[in-house]
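Why do we care about 3D structure at all? Because function follows from shape, and shape follows, mostly, from sequence. That is the central idea of this module. The next example makes it concrete: a single protein chain, its amino acid sequence, and then its structure expressed as tokens.
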Amino acid sequence: MTLTKGRRLGPYEILGSIGSGGMGEVYRAHDSRLDRTVAIKILPAHLSERPELRQRFEREAKTIASLNHPHICVIYDIGREGEIDFLVMEYVEGETLSDRLMKGPLPLGQALRYASEIADALDKAHRNGITHRDVKPANIMITRTGTKLLDFGLAKRSEGGGHGPLSQMATDVDLTGEGTILGTVQYMSPEQLEGGEADSRSDVFAFGATFYEMVTGVKAFQGKSHVSLMAAILQKEPLPMAAMQPVTPPGLERFVRVCLAKDPGDRWQTARDLAREIQWVSETSAAQPAGRSAHISKWKTVLLGSLMLVLGSVIVMLGLLLSKSPAANPIWLSVPPPDAGFAATPALAVSPDGTQIVFAGVSASGGNSLWIRAFSSSTARELPGTAEGLMPFWKPDGRAIGFYANERLQTVSIDGGVP
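And the structure:
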């Protein structure tokens, strides 16, 4: 079913399509009574004749209506026009988190802020005995004022709240087709995939998978097929976030690891726990000071890493020297810098085989660059492509140099070239 522009559903005039999914098609519309733009979700024609799906549609309306939260989409109305069942909801301008992640990961501070808002929205739902069961980037809208949690079409209500059974099986043959799993496999918890009960801790798992993707830009679990994907969720751990984002705070790694625990009892038990942990990470690890202090902190880390590399190189060289015969004659040598001298912040590194050094020197133009000197040579040569290079270190095979220039980590062949 496709509603054309100008079609009316009661007082609502269709303005255009927004999108569609398995349980509904969403349109932008104008509310003639209150003169405002709204979003209208309709039950697709091939599903509208099934009473059980219409009941789920109505249940979604009642579920959203029971939640009043700034980061949960608001529902205004529910109706039926001819054979069309529809929900009228708040029209949210922005882009989905899924669309945003196609451009790459979010800055850490922004990811933490969005995660805090989503966790607060889930906490509101869970305290009302509602499990979303389909938390994923496509169901999170990013607006100018923050995030909105959307699409409660698969939500389940537990009258008692907490971790009570919300569904007897993770599959619902009558409602979704034989063998179809409720939710999106990429973000589903192990207990849902195994046909167990889904509760608020299942939302915690989906939240963890979503947050992992927000920080790294990579999905937590991947597979070439649904079978291999499910096997990864059930048996494997995702790569540490630091493998993709080296500056990820250790506290954040622990936070996501607990979210993605295979056993629900090992996860954070409530969305309120998520909110508290996010606040703690923000205040301790992720709250990097801005401006000059952040710049200084970064270069302290760089300098420490370079010193460790130099120390390692010296140890290697000493090992080579000590491995020589005790009767070997000592060798005395000096390594003068280029005529113009060392750079303002000299640093040098010995090659892994102990035959060359690289250091920061002053180039003929007056700026600093990197120079290589073999112990068998009486002169040093300037390394092309290393203008403004500082704190050099060797690649383990001795065929390339790593260095820092213009606040960037770069690498270049020992023969020079484009870094």
